[in-house]
Amino acid sequence: MECDLLLPLNMRIIPHALRGLCSPIYPIPTYRMILLHKSYSFSRPLFLSLRFRSSPSAALNVIQPNIEVGSKLFSANLPESSKSGVNLDRLGNRGIGNTGGKERLKWYSQMLRDCALNEGKAIHGHVIKNGVDPDMHLWVSLINFYAKCQSLEFARQVFDEMPGRDVVSWTALIAGFVAEGYGSDGVYLFNEMRKEGIRPNEFTLATGLKAGSMSLDLEFGKQVHAEVIKVGKFSDVYVGSALVDLYAKCSEMKYACKVFFSMPEQNDVSWNTLLNGYARMGNGEEVWELFCKMTESQMKLSKFTLSTVLKGFANSDALGAGQVIHSMAIKIGFEQDEFVSSTLVDMYSKWGLADDALKVFTRIKNPDIVAWTSMISCLDQQGRKQEAANLFLLMRDIGLRPNQHTLSSLVSTAADLNPQYSESIHCAVFKYGFQFDTSVNNALITMYMKIGYVENSCRVFDSMSNRDLVSWNALFSGFHDNETCDQGLRIFNQMLLEGFKPNMQTFISILRSCSSLSNVSFGKQIHARIIKGKLDDVFVGTALIDMYVKCRCLEDAEVVFTRLKERDVFTWTVIISGYVQTDQEEKAIQYFGKMQKEGVKPNEFTLASCLRGCSGIANLENGRQLHSFAIKSGQCDDIFVASAIVDMYGKCGCIDNAETSFKGLDFRDTVAWNTMLCGYSQHGKGEKALEAFQIMLVEAAVPDGVTFLGILSACSHMGLVEEAKRYFNSMSDVYGIIPNTEHYVCIIDTLGRAGKFDEVESLIDNMEIEPNALIWETVLGACKIHGNIEFGERAAEKLFELEPEIDSNYILLSNIFAANGRWGDVSRIRALMSSRGVKKEPGCSWVEVGAQIHVFLSQDGSHPKILEIYEKLEELEQKRASVAYIPNEVEAHHNVDGKEKSQNLFHHSERLALAFALISDKPNKTIRIFKNHRICEDGHDFMKHISSIINRQIVVRDIKRFHHFQQGTCSCQDYW
Questions:
Q1: Distance of CA 908 to the CA centre of its chain
Q2: What are phi and psi of 36, to 5 degrees?
Q3: pLDDT tens digit sequence for 861-899
Q4: Quick one: which of 620, 694, 609 has its CA closest to 656?
Q5: Nearest to 347 by CA among 374, 369, 327, 368
Q6: Which DSSP letter does residue 856 get?
Q7: What is the sign of the dihedral through the CA atoms of 944, 945, 948 and 951?
Q8: Rounded CA separation 806/432 (Å)
Q9: Burial class (CB in 10 A: 0-12, 13-18, 19+), 731
Q10: Is residue 735 scored above 90 in pLDDT?
Q11: Which of 75, 232, 421, 957 is most solvent-facing, going by the fewest CB within 10 Å?
Q12: Residues 6+ apart with CB under 8 A from 732
């Protein structure tokens, strides 16, 4: 309710009961005073400085003298001399006027103790109307009465009407404000009292300290503490307990303990106060130690003591101590007490022991709303959403009305059930009248954002009259995806305009929006605000690193990372995954080593990221170490780690190890199946890929777009044209998957390898998507295989338009011309490359030996063991000649004589890598070589012959697939 009490008098009608407050005799500033649900927002200069010095007749306007008070009320405690009177006056006082003065004043004071507001006003009015001169006791009784009835403005007016104010009247007024929760006003009144020279007694000091603890005014509390010592009231147990409470509420437990143990006498109140201080801080160890001292002092344990101790354990990890207190409660006979039982439910709930909480809860005869709410909240937090919903229904069936905390928990539960239930809980919020509660509305906003009902969430937010920072943060939570993240930036700006100061959660949310938008400029502005606000929190720092990583600003991410004072596993995981995502796998593995040196234990996401890094650079040795680490840490069962292990072995050329790891999985989801299926395809095991797909369907795993990429790739490598067409058509017809560019690339590759160029052209012409560079690269590659110069030139022209800077497009067309002896066209293409500033990326190969990666370029002479490498190549050449191997000189693609062509082929990078592996690795060990280009025909033939000569398996991974060379054959069956 909003009341314009202090506007000019000619602007509104004055309520009769409040005319004394607005008397025109004393001019009052035209301020606006808001009363919301009995919440008096008086500014000190306005309210507490008012002095109503009006006459008794003016003060009478405050009261409603015409209110009838029942005769039963007034005859209950009448003096004997008045009970004989039977004539009722207008107030029905049965002749009170016949009693003596002191007896009458005493009677008024007694009647004010237990009457309601209107009845008390009538008594007050009768006092004024009959010209009764109140004594000090009656004045204090009036102040106490109005304070008890929550009419603090009337209590203050009575106080100002008093001819003389003593410490008792000041204490009564201060206590009234403190009782209503206005601690800061209590502090102000205490200071005003001291200015008037009134010396506080023990009750005033205790009340003032209570005001200080409510307002967390530590400096005021210390001043009162000094006053306590000065006036010699420290020995009073209530004053001492109030001091302990003040320091405990202000988190100054050192001072609280010092005061407590300096007290000449401690009672259960002071013990409980100190215990509660430690309990609020979640210091279970201190709570237990203090509780043991309390029991040693032979202090009688109350249900409040046990509840306080249990509350302290609930906020810590002192499970064993909490169970001891539970046993003690059973022994003493407090287990059935609702207060203790509710605290036990809360303790087990916060520990996540829902079953134990339920056992305690079911033993409570009449659980109150606090116990119900704790139990519902526990089930919700433990993921037992349906049980939480059922418990709420049971609570409603017994007629118990939920409070705002109950509904907030139910709203959280509803977000994980179904939209219909979510909306029904929203209806319940209206039914029980909590539609204006801020905490409930905040939960509703979060709920609707979680289920994707953004419009409903915004409606709830717009309907709120009292938004807080939590409301804004809840709204932010729904604007992180790529479609709506731009709105998050606008909301953030609006929040700042409305004067809200962002906190840690706000910054994390807005940084997520910046990450989704890749808006590093706005992210840097947020970074500046974070630095200005000195929010160097690990969570904010992690969000900053993630933002810079997503925006591909790894240097900035590394600066933030190195400056963080604290780095948890999530921080390390973000920076490691960032390096993996930006193709800096070596750095990712380095950071993993640093993480272990700092004693941070990696989680499943860290391991999965590092394993993907090993996959990217085919670092088998580190991958095996990570696999070993996962086994020792028990993380192999995690589906993310397990899939990453399968992928690592597959991409490092160990398809047998990948298969073994895959078969050992207890649960295989679509991602795991896709990893294995694509691994089979890349390693030339097309039959196994198709077989895996059938088993996948039998196990009810749902195929997705990636699944069909593996299937179509397998068909392409095996030359299964009709099967590829059938699988391609089934994507949309059977599984409802719309083919994307990569699927079209696979089917075009299948048709192109088979030389079906008419079908390729027809498919491209009828595609639902615009053919991009990847499509034309595939066509150009097929044209090279079959020497289709005409179609190849058309495909190359398209590529020169779409990707004029990519060297491989020019090289592929040049190779087509070279294969057909058209050296003039080869020169023309090279001149075109030169004019456009396009340089050929040098071909390189690398091999892992002794846990180190060794990289070789074609014609490379920089390696420390290059002489030994060349000697090994000479040895291989002699063995090659003995089996009549003839180099495929067509693949040299240079217009030089035959001898020079053979020499060029002889020093290709993959051969240098092979020779180094042979002179460095153990005999009979599989050699694994990796290339940045597609392997040429001569290199392919060379590896086949050498594998037979040296009787060892050679695995070569080029940019397209794996080739397993063994005994003179290749796993691709010469079809790649």
A1: 52
A2: -120, 110
A3: 888 999 999 899 888 888 877 765 555 544 445 444 444
A4: 620
A5: 374
A6: E
A7: negative
A8: 67
A9: buried
A10: yes
A11: 232
A12: 738, 739
Go through the chain and tell me how many residues it has.
Answer: 976
- CB contact at 8 A, 727 and 689: no
3-state SS class at 581: helix
Positive or negative, the Cα torsion across 226, 227, 232, 236?
Answer: negative
The DSSP result for 488-548, as a single string, is: HHHHHHHHHHTTPPP-HHHHHHHHHHHHHHT-HHHHHHHHHHHHHTT---HHHHHHHHHHH
Integer angstrom CA distances of residue 694 from 130, 566, 697, 699, 711: 101, 49, 5, 9, 11
Q: Counting beta carbons within 10 angstroms of the beta carbon of residue 3, is it exposed (0 to 12), middle (13 to 18) or buried (19 or more)?
A: middle
Residue 89 contacts by C-beta under 8 Å, 6 or more apart in sequence?
95, 97
- The burial class, CB within 10 Å (0-12 / 13-18 / 19+), for 213 is buried
Structure tokens that stand for 910 in this block: 């993959």
Round to the nearest angstrom and report the end-to-end CA distance of the chain.
80
Which tokens belong to 887? 């180099």
Please list, in sequence order, all residues whose beta carbon lies within 8 angstroms of the beta carbon of residue 921, skipping any fewer than 6 positions away: 849, 927
pTM comes to 0.64
> Contact at 8 Å (CB) between 875 and 906?
no
pLDDT in tens, 459-497: 999 999 888 999 998 988 877 765 666 787 888 888 898
Do residues 59 and 20 make contact, with C-beta atoms less than 8 angstroms apart? yes
Query: Is 875 within 8 Å of 948 (Cβ atoms)?
Result: no
Q: How many whole angstroms separate alpha carbon 855 and alpha carbon 614?
A: 16
Q: Answer positive or negative: Cα dihedral of 911, 912, 913, 914.
A: positive
The two structure tokens encoding residue 89: 């006056």
Q: Which amino acid is at 747?
A: I
Name the β-bridge partners of 928: 955
d(CA 777, CA 876): 35
Bridge-based pairing state of the strands 35-36 and 39-40: antiparallel
